[in-house]
Amino acid sequence: MRVLAAKVWTPTDIEEAWSLRKKFHLESCFVAGGTLLQTQWEKGVSYPPQLISLEKVEELERMNYKTEGAKRFLQIGSMTKLATCRNHPVIKEKWSLLSTAIQQIAAPAIRNLGTIGGNVVYGFGDAIPALLALDAEVSYFDGKTIKIEKLDHWLNTRQNNEVLLTGVILPEYRHSSFVTQFYKKVGRREAFSGSVVTVSGVIGQNDAGIIDFVRLAVGGGDNRPQRLKETEQLLIGQMIKPLLLKNVYDTILNEFHPISDVFYSGDYRRWTAANIVISELSRLEG
Ligand SMILES: Cc1cc2nc3c(=O)[nH]c(=O)nc-3n(C[C@H](O)[C@H](O)[C@H](O)COP(=O)(O)OP(=O)(O)OC[C@H]3O[C@@H](n4cnc5c(N)ncnc54)[C@H](O)[C@@H]3O)c2cc1C
């Protein structure tokens, strides 16, 4: 067993956690459940001398179902365990896509330790495609106040590790007559080797079968999860027909450019992603 030669700090509120991070800066990192960090340290990645554990910051573990004006949403504190998210009755009822995604992350013992915040800050976590499809927002502390922005935007603009993520926000989405959602993770689950490709989507159709909202997201391996916005634009206002599916397939190949690794080529990943989306859309034909 490897013993960490690091000092572990246990702040009790967000401000204290932030000021420790500012004080030690590159000599430190936040630790949530520690499950991802553990895999990195076991691979020989050096750990910083100051570890700032967030386990005693109670406000990061709260879950609130709120209404503000016309907006209704669920706020999930970043330190909420993956297992808690997966089993929470409100999430199961209203955002079951997240519950489905988390069920496919690691094994129960890891889900009992790992947090939703750790999965998101990691940047490649398997919960992210589902959160993107659900149009999730994130909240983070910037040293003065808590800011909120779309997860999609945050993933593309944030500076690595320069954040204290406080939560994930799930907005209630507009209900069409028929809402279909899916989450598919292709890859090995036994060991943590990262998925080959992960695809998630939420599609709404009106009574006439016309798509009136759609969000599609892909990720997998070392590929930063992303929305398929060109494909979404193509689908809006359309009924599913064979010609449309052909265009959707080509558009996905155009806008998703995953990298290759020693196991799978980028082309294999994008063909797989395109095939999954087409298979899911085909079910809605007619
Ligand atoms: C056996 C095994 C299997 C796994 N399988 C999967 C899998 O299938 N899919 C998957 O996605 N992951 C998997 N993981 C990785 C990991 O368990 C999850 O991604 C988990 O959600 C990480 O959460 P954590 O709380 O443990 O993060 P930590 O390890 O504590 O932290 C992860 C990163 O986020 C930062 N961080 C954490 N919380 C915050 C915060 N609030 N603000 C700012 N920075 C923060 C940390 O500094 C660190 O850089 C696996 C891990 C193991 C050991």
Explain the layout of strands and helices.
Blueprint: E1 7-9, H1 14-24, E2 28-31, H2 35-42, E3 50-53, E4 63-68, E5 71-77, H3 82-87, H4 89-94, H5 96-103, H6 108-111, H7 116-122, H8 128-133, E6 137-141, E7 146-150, H9 151-157, E8 164-171, E9 178-186, E10 197-205, E11 211-220, E12 223-227, H10 229-235, H11 242-255, H12 266-282
Parallel strand pairs: 1-3, 2-3
Antiparallel strand pairs: 4-5, 5-8, 6-7, 6-8, 9-10, 10-11, 11-12
Helix pairs in contact: 10-11, 11-12
Bound molecules: flavin-adenine dinucleotide (FAD).
Flavin-adenine dinucleotide (FAD) binds at residues 29-39, 54, 78, 82, 105-106, 110, 113-115, 117-119, 121-122, 125-126, 163-165, 192.
Written account of the structure:
The protein has twelve helices and twelve strands. The radius of gyration is 20 Å and the shape is globular. The strands form three sheets. Strands 4-5-8-6-7 form a five-stranded antiparallel β-sheet. Strands 9-10-11-12 form a four-stranded antiparallel β-sheet, sandwiched between helices. It has a three-stranded parallel β-sheet with strand order 1-3-2, covered by helices on one side. It has helices at residues 14-24, 35-42, 82-87, 89-94, 96-103, 108-111, 116-122, 128-133, 151-157, 229-235, 242-255, 266-282, and strands at 7-9, 28-31, 50-53, 63-68, 71-77, 137-141, 146-150, 164-171, 178-186, 197-205, 211-220, 223-227. It has 286 residues and is α+β, with helices and mostly antiparallel strands. 35% of the residues lie in helices and 26% in strands. Helix 10 (229-235) packs antiparallel against helix 11 and helix 11 packs antiparallel against helix 12 (266-282). Strand 10 (197-205) and strand 11 form a beta hairpin. Flavin-adenine dinucleotide binds at residues 29-39, 54, 78, 82, 105-106, 110, 113-115, 117-119, 121-122, 125-126, 163-165, 192. Keywords: FAD, Flavoprotein, Oxidoreductase. GO terms for molecular function: anaerobic carbon-monoxide dehydrogenase activity; FAD binding. This is Carbon-monoxide dehydrogenase medium subunit. Its EC number is 1.2.7.4.
